[in-house]
Model the fold of this input.
Amino acid sequence: MSRIVVLTDMDGTLLDHDSYSFRRALPALDLLIRRNIPVVPVTSKTSAEMTRWMKHLYLKGPFICENGCGIVIPSDYFSVEVKGCRKEGDVLKLSLGSGITQIREALGEIALELGVNLRGYGNMSSDEISSVTGLKGEELISSIQREHDEPFLMDGDCDFDTLRSAAGKRGLTVLRGDRFYHLVNHCDKGKASTILLDLYRQEYGKIRVIGLGDSHNDLDFLKVVDIPFVVQRPDGTYDPLIPEEAAQRIPGIGPNGWRIAIERFLAGEVKGFEQ
Done:
């Protein structure tokens, strides 16, 4: 029997877009935990944020952070060797992205080149970040501790393709998330997921993978799973940048859709996925 692995986006998917609550997803999350099915967050959140969230979610495995720029694995989780990582306390960290200083310098250059105001995390006050994200206290402090991925807002008339082209000239790319654009080097959630899933295959042999997301920057990792799901956004729509054929559309917003997708899977109602 194949080992099942679940990859999931956080904000707007497992977590409510506005309140960050996972209450509506909890019944399905509890079922996965009880069945010893690994649940792996794949998120734009920082390592510091995810260390806190893993405790809240009662998850004890690895996670992918900063839009695929980093992978964090408990040091005793896999028996196989994790190459290229560094040990920090009781976890192994694998860095796939450029340093945040380089990314922020490039964001300033792009803003000057395009003549638009690009306000990155590094140039925003705590109050401004809080007003956009709703984060406060330790959660806000953790979100600021970025290593590779710079979220930013854009003021001005500039289309997405032009923005990506300017980033591409510098060996970088732009992702579009729920609240922010993100400037990163050419790492993404899909590449990081592929690396982590290869470790699962080395450990367990054959695995089958389901993935859950809600926005365009989830598309890269939804492409590398066996069964991809996309949940509805807060207004009840699906991200138009995710093609209909790319993922099964679940009739539920955020964590409610997450619960529906997992319950359908566990009930054997997902076509093309043999447990």
In short: The mean pLDDT is 92. The longest strand covers residues 207-213.
